[in-house]
Amino acid sequence: MQLEPERTAVVVVDMQNGFCHPDGSLYAPGSEAVIEPIADLLKRAREAGTQVVFTRDVHPPEQFDDAHYYDEFDQWGEHVLEGSWEAEIVDELPVEDGDHVIEKHTYDAFYNTELEGWLNARGIDDLVICGTLANVCVLHTGGSAGLRDFRPIMLEDCIGAIEDDHREYALDHAAWLFGEVEPSAEIAFA
To answer: What pTM was estimated for this model as a whole?
Structure first.
């Protein structure tokens, strides 16, 4: 699959210590396992001049104090608190000059963030999506991208999950409903 570098962004979803490091409160070995293939993808993308966007799931400690229904701390316990080591992107995937970082407070990187406007301002249409967790933030971000008329391309070998079944579900759902699923080796930025 040939993608035009100037019309494409690689979106790296939530590759943070809280999810990818063994000391993280929501550590999933499947998330740690995709660090190396994502690093390889980012190297190729940057060499071609493709924009890289990192998302960071960040929660102020009081975020859900007045919640009526949506409370991630009820679901997952406290995690990736604002200013914490857990909220930082893993050292193996350093943010470089020219990369863009989006802080989000929900599963969807488009919800109440500047991501859509930032992409539109740069004429970006195609989103190569990788990161973690497959059936949570990756799935919701990919679906939201499709609803906004971006082309979400989910990279099957660069998406982490708690369980393999979760990853398979998310990729099947994406392919069926809103996007495309490809191995990272099939992506060329040229």
So the answer is: 0.95
